[in-house]
Design goal:
Distance between the termini: 69 Å
Helix content: 10-25%
Strand content: 35-45%
Radius of gyration: 30 Å
Number of helices: 6
Largest sheet: 6 strands, mixed
Oligomer: single chain
Number of strands: 43
């Protein structure tokens, strides 16, 4: 049986009364100190979770912290699960929810605001606690606004067939914004392949992050729940990092190369008094080596050769004591280079890391890089940064092959009881053909079978043109169509036989003004063969919560993605680009305004390039509507 507690009070009073009614002095006891009873811990009902904090206000200096206590009610009494491996704190700021590391029961921050916390505990299912608010107040700062440079971590192997795709995406990101991110490529043995560039720390990182498959990408040492292996997902994470985790320090580097000896001075100047770790990493570019999934000579870039720390989160700066705001701290290291490395193609990267959970995990707040034997000064916001060192950007794809992207139109309706199952079938086909990054869905909603707030007349136009007769249905690359309940196998066969390369490619550049939700998007097309092309452009929205019929039930919390909101071109068959001369880029621009009814941050543009001779889709490009871009997706050699 569970023991129950309660309050027990005992009051004993003794009075001696004389003949005149006065208190007898002999009976007066000395007054005892007023010592309060110790607080009695609340008895948590069995199966319930309680969250409490030792303070509700801290300074946003990255050093002060709040410690949480998480109790779980059991038959034997309260169980402290504050540091259990299946306990996760979930914090929310400005509507953005983020799950902290497992067993993290402390919190500090450099971003002021009101944070809301709750606990999640896995014990015979998910258990959630009450909410606790913590206010992070602004701290005294030097007011210096350092440029925030990100650190990208690519995990790869010569034995990973899909890894070259991630390398191309990183090259395109670097080309679009050369100074924004430094990249370290961590190699490992994979499958039956031994990787000559493997580094022991790679597996340590992957074990810490809890993943095993390749390719993988992480940003600023943060463990992400989302698998980032595409250009779109990486750019989304980069923007989220810039929006929510400001740089609280600047990083500068001095390096001297004398033969095979490298002297590195890592300099960190903090805007607030805070605690840091630092990490020095050496990377090498242009390493000619075999790569599964690539043809011909292959050159590996950003290869991590040396990590000057035994800890994956770096070495304590200033012996773990806070850096004084505005005072530069310098850490010097001597590194001996391996004779197999080429110093002319190498760079040194210095990371400055901070912790938001009491030192359990650390994340990079800023970094910098330079070639071996050179220096890198502090970077400041508002200045135009000099392009960072590194491999040459992807050449203009004149004569190169392009990765072929596909467009599948999904015909659906909120009233359609079979449509959720049809979408699951579509997802299964895309996944089985490894097309998560190259097969793009446009969801066209229809209202003829019942009310659907996402319906558009375009749905019926295409539906009728392709002589479809049931929902859910699909049209693939404006070439074939059918139902997703009985004719999906034709779609599967089409994708299995489709070429993975194209002679033409698409790129997108978007300028966006958030104040009036308007802007312009430029579609760029390039072909290696002369021909006539057209372009169709769509505005899509993800994450729409709206009712959906599913079988005999209606799901009110159903999430609709890829929903076609507007067509910017005059027709789904595209607007003419005229004749494209081989190797000569053609462009077409569209002005747009995102309706207040749409979530701008969840909207994307989907551009479809159509071969005028066949009427079929030749390639597709997708980017975020609120200021995104998409470079040409070139087949890696």
């Amino acid at each position: 049986m569970r023991k129950m507690g309660g309050w027990v009070a005992a009051v004993a009073m003794s009075f001696g009364v004389g003949c005149h009614g006065y208190l007898d002095p002999a009976t007066i006891q000395p007054e005892k100190p007023n010592t309060p009873n110790p607080p009695v811990e609340e008895i948590i009902p069995v199966g319930e979770l309680r969250l409490s904090a030792d303070k509700t206000s801290i300074e946003a200096d990255g050093a002060q912290k709040v410690t949480f206590k998480v109790l779980f009610g059991t038959e034997e009494g309260n169980k402290d699960v504050s540091m259990a491996k299946t306990m996760y704190l979930i914090r929310t700021l400005d509507g953005v929810e983020e799950q902290m590391a497992a067993a993290a029961n402390a919190f500090s921050t450099t971003k002021p605001g009101t944070y809301t916390f709750k606990a999640r505990y896995y014990y015979n299912g998910e258990k959630f606690s009450n909410e606790v608010q913590v206010v992070a107040t602004p701290t005294q700062s030097t007011g210096v606004n350092y440029y925030k440079k990100l650190y990208g971590m690519q995990f790869t192997s010569v034995g990973c067939q899909n890894c070259p795709t991630l390398s191309v995406a990183l090259s395109q990101i670097k080309e679009a914004d050369p100074q924004r991110m430094a990249v370290g490529s961590y190699h490992m043995d994979f499958g039956s392949y031994s990787d000559p560039m493997s580094h022991p720390i790679t597996q340590t990182f992957l074990t810490n992050f809890g993943v095993s498959g390749l390719p993988r990408f992480f940003l600023n040492l943060r463990k992400e729940s989302e698998s980032m292996a595409s250009k779109t997902s990486i750019e989304r994470a980069m923007q989220n990092e810039l929006n929510n985790n400001p740089a609280i320090c600047g990083v500068a580097i001095e390096s001297t190369l004398n033969g095979s000896t490298l002297q590195v001075k890592a300099k960190v100047t903090s805007t607030i008094s805070s605690i840091y770790r630092y990490e020095i990493i050496l990377v090498e570019d242009q390493i000619k080596e075999f790569q599964l999934g690539a043809n011909g000579d292959y050159y590996h870039n950003n290869v991590v050769r040396h990590v000057d720390s035994g800890n994956i989160f770096g070495t304590r700066l200033n012996n773990g004591q806070p850096l004084e705001a505005g005072v530069e701290f310098t850490q010097e290291r001597t590194i001996n280079l391996n004779s197999n490395w080429n110093p002319e193609n190498m760079r040194v990267i210095v990371l400055a890391n901070i912790s938001s959970d009491g030192g359990l995990t650390w994340a990079t707040t800023n970094c910098n890089e330079c070639k071996l034997g050179e220096s890198a000064d502090y970077l400041y916001e508002g200045e135009t940064p000099t392009p960072g060192p590194g491999p040459a950007p992807t050449p203009t794809p004149d004569g190169d092959k392009f990765v072929r992207h596909h467009c599948v139109m999904e015909f659906t309706g909120a009233w359609c009881s079979n449509c959720p199952d049809g979408l699951n079938t579509l997802k299964m086909i895309i996944e089985s053909n490894k097309g998560e990054e190259t097969i793009h869905v446009i969801a066209l909603h229809d209202s003829t079978g019942g009310g659907d707030p996402m319906a558009t007349p375009l749905t019926n136009t295409i539906f009728n043109d392709f002589k479809l007769n049931a929902y859910p249905s699909y049209v693939m690359n404006l070439e074939i169509g059918g139902t997703l309940t009985s004719e999906w196998s034709a779609l599967n066969r089409y994708l299995r036989s489709a070429s993975k390369e194209s002679d033409c490619g698409l790129a997108l550049t978007t300028n966006y003004n958030a104040s009036n939700r308007s802007g312009s998007v430029t579609v760029k097309a390039l072909s290696n063969v002369t021909g006539n092309y057209r372009v169709a452009l769509y505005l899509l929205e993800d994450g729409i919560v709206s009712a959906q019929k599913h079988g005999s039930q209606t799901r009110e919390d159903y999430i609709h993605n890829h929903v076609m909101r507007e067509m910017l071109s005059t027709s789904y068959k595209g607007d003419s680009l005229g004749e494209l001369t081989a190797g000569i880029e053609a462009t077409k621009s569209y002005d747009f305004t995102i309706s207040n009814d749409y979530e701008a941050e969840q909207c994307t543009f989907c551009a479809v390039l159509i071969d005028n001779a066949t009427g079929f889709v030749a390639n597709v490009a997708v980017c975020e509507a609120a200021g995104g871009s998409a470079a040409y997706d070139v087949v890696s050699e």
